[in-house]
Amino acid sequence: NYTPQPSDKFTFGLWTVGNLGRDPFGEATRVRLEPTYIVEKLAELGAYGVSLHDNDLVPLEASPNERDRIVREFKKTLEQTGLKVTMATTNLFTDPVFKDGAFTSADARVRAFALQKTMRAMDLGAELGAQIYVFWGGREGSEVDFSGKLLDALSWFRDSLNFLAEYSDSQGYGYRFALEPKPNEPRGDLFLPVVGAALGFIATLDKPERFGLNPEFAHETMAGLSFPHAIAQAIDAGKLFHIDLNDQKMSRFDQDLRFGAENLKAAFMLVKLLEDSGYDGPRHFDAHALRTEDEAGVWEFAKGCMRTYLILKEKAQRFDQDSEIQAALKAYRVEDAELEALSKGFSKEKAEALKARGFDLDALRKRGPGLERLDQLTLELLMGVR
Ligand code: 3MF
Ligand code: MG
Ligand code: MG
Ligand code: MG
Hints:
Blueprint: E1 10-13, H1 14-17, H2 35-45, E2 49-53, H3 54-57, H4 64-81, E3 84-89, H5 108-127, E4 132-136, E5 141-142, H6 150-171, E6 176-180, E7 189-190, H7 195-202, E8 211-213, H8 217-222, H9 227-236, E9 244-245, H10 264-277, E10 283-285, H11 295-321, H12 323-332, H13 337-343, H14 348-356, H15 361-366, H16 371-383
Parallel strand pairs: 1-2, 1-10, 2-3, 3-4, 4-6, 6-8, 9-10
Antiparallel strand pairs: 5-7
Helix pairs in contact: 2-4, 5-6, 9-10, 10-11, 12-16
The chain binds 3-O-methylfructose in linear form (3MF) and magnesium ion (MG) (3 copies).
One magnesium ion (MG) is lined by residues 216, 218, 254, 256.
C-alpha cells in the first residue's frame, strides 16, 4: 500500500497547502488555514515535516511579543505531532519594498533591509530546528535592463550571500544554503534562471561548499528544459541540497501542479534518480491545489503528491527487477575493457595508441541501440500492464 510514513521524508511548505487560490486575475477562493492546523493535518497524513517563509508563520507587522507567542504555540504543535521544520526561507517578494529586487535592488536601503529580514528569518528557522536555508530570488530580476545594473546585481547578490553565510557561522547555526533558480515570474527575467547558472554562481562565493541547490520541477520546465537532466547535474556536482517537487506544463505561467499531474515520464525518471543516487534530504512539495478546490480538495492534493511519489518509487523497483527491461539496458551499453582503459587517464602512450587505432565505422553507424523497445517497455510498466 502507498500510505506515507514519516520515514519517507515527505515535507510541504506551509504556503503550499495554505495557498488561498489567488491568481493575477482573481481573488482568493479559500480561507487561511492556521499554521498549527496545517501541521496537525499533515501529521495525520503521514508527512515528515514542514518548511516555511518567515511570514508564513509570523506576520510582517507582528510585535516581538506576538512573535514569541506564535512561535511558542507552533513549537508546541510540532512537539505534539512529531513533525519537523526541515527548511526555512525568507519572504523577499510579497512586500512592495522588494518590487525592484531585495539583495539586487539598486537602492542600498532595500539591500540592507533584505539582509536584516533574512538574519531575523534565519534566527527563526534555527529556533525551529531547520538545517537547510533556501534562497529563491523572487524579485531578483528585471524588466528594464538599461538601468545598467546587470553586473552590479550579481556582485550585490554575491556580497549578500557571503555576508549571510558568515552570519550563520557566527551564530553557530550550521545551515546548508540552497539556491532556487527560476527563469521568470514574477519578474520578466530572473537572475540565475536555471540550475546550471546557479551552479556557476556558487563557484564564485567565498564559501562555495556551504551552498547548493533547491531545484524545482516547474521552474526548469517553464524554461523548456528537462528537470531530470538538471537534477543529474546537481547530483553530479554534489549540490542537490533540497528539492521542490511539483509539476507544470512546459513553457507556461507558473502552475505549481500536484506532483506527477502533468509529466508522468519525467516524474518517474526524477524519482528513479533521487532513489538511485541515495539522495537523503526531504522530498519537499512546493505546489498547491487547483484554484477550483475547497479545503477537502487541498488534502486530496497533498495525499496525491505523496501517493504518486510512492507509486513511482515502487515502479522504479519493478524497473530494476524486470528481466526484459534489464536485458534491454544491458544490450544498450557496449563495453570494451581495452578501449575504456585507453580512453581514460591521459598518457602519451595511450594517446599514440588511440591515434593509431582502426575502428569499424560501418558497424557503429548501423547499430541500433534498442531505445524504442526500452521506452515502450518502460511505458507499459508505468501504465500498469507489466
Ligand atoms: C516560487 C517558488 C517559491 C520558493 C520559496 C522558497 C513561494 O515559484 O518556488 O515559493 O520555493 O520561496 O523555497
Ligand atoms: Mg516555484
Ligand atoms: Mg512554481
Ligand atoms: Mg519553489
